[in-house]
Specification:
By secondary structure, this protein is mainly alpha-helical. The protein contains 21 helices and three strands. The structure holds zinc ion. The site of zinc ion (ZN) has 4 residues, from helix 10 and helix 11.
Length: 501
Amino acid sequence: MAGIEDKILSFQDYMKKITDFNSAIALLDWDSRTKMPKKGVAARSEALGTLSSTVFQMQVSPEMRAFLEELEAGKDQLDLKTRRMLEISRKFYDLNQKIPAARFHEFVVLRTQAEAVWQEAKEKSDFAMFSPYLAKIVDMTKEFIGYWGHKDHLYDTLLDMYEEGLTVSVLDPLFANVRKQTIAILDQIKDAPKPDKHFLERRFDPEKQRQFSEFILHQMGYDFDAGRLDETVHPFATGIAPGDVRVTTKYLPNFFNSALFGSIHEGGHALYEQNISDDLAGTPLHTGVSMGIHESQSRFWENIIGRSHEFWQRYFPDLQKMFPDELSDVTTDQFYKAVNAVEPSFIRIEADEVTYNLHIMLRYELEKALITGDLKVADLPGAWNDKMQDYLGITPPNDSEGVLQDVHWSDGSFGYFPSYSLGNIYGAQMIRALGKDIPDYREQVAKGEFSSIRHWLKTHIHQYGSLYKPDEILRKATGEGVDTSAIFDYFNRKFGRIYGF
Ligand code: ZN
């Protein structure tokens, strides 16, 4: 019998092939969202479809099954990296080989159609148009949970796909707590004077916005020799390969926040991927471990650093120099308050730090009810509006600014939304832990010095890639599991100063 060393080497080769395919997929996908001419769409979709199903087949193949069985038998002799690759591969194999290939294919086709229909329905604010597609997606998701299996709650199976190990039994009390404390802050803010933010809607030359975004990314330590910044409609960051992690943003001529804070957000995702240990290169572990940990990094840079007073103490003079006509009559303090204004709003992606989590909770509760069957798709718009009124005290004027605003449901990504709030919560826990190791980090931000912050993130989070589970990474970084006390200490301190409570 061949030694286990040989088996390990062949397994690593096999995983490297999958990694290379995924790299090609990521590059084609980046290109189709940034540079591709319109007429390239059809052929590109086919190429992406072929590559994706090749990867899928490799992950559920008889060859994979043989690797899993033989290596699991000799588990004690495997190093940590191989064990973790095996664990991830086993999980994927068990989940996906149970789904009949024909049903999987139907689901892929349905999602593609549903996304196109959603786009049109959103433009026309016509939920009835999208409703039959969404109903099918919900039904198929429930059917798949039947194949995948579940432990306590049907929704746990979906959560686990984005945040390994997370369950409804953890999230329900966590979110109940976030809701209670958020409402308490909003109550205190309600009667305070509103910050003036009209100057954020002056005309900001897109080319200058690009230059400033690039400047800030350099300052953060984003490595332009291992990445690039491009323009797109729906901004994203993507790790194509070690040494190639790209960011995108969108320049709105009449609204300042979008491009810069979007760039910082995507830059936070990218710093994570750029600082994964080289030791994990060529394996599926060379990527962020979960959506929640990924969002903790993006929102850490965007909000905790990028919307801090110290940050603008340092960079507002530079911004004024770039936009003298637009910002010479604005003080650092006014600017800081404007980019941190808290106000209930309809659109999640434009929400401030405090109300943002309420947008997530609303989606989480509706998703759970759809999956358990407590809520019918036809009743979704009404349920959405009721919850908006209940949580934020406002009712959307139409469905395109309400239930139709996000792409996620057309894509079948149920279980994804909670990652955003987890990211906010994790990020606050991380800055609290970082503050113990680097007590003067605020002074450093005020000087535009980010190297020790970056080093801390790399040492405690980034380097590990997907080597550990999300909860293990959080515990390694902060010494604790998920906990909401840090985010509310942070909110109360920050917004208490801005709004005087
Ligand atoms: Zn993000």
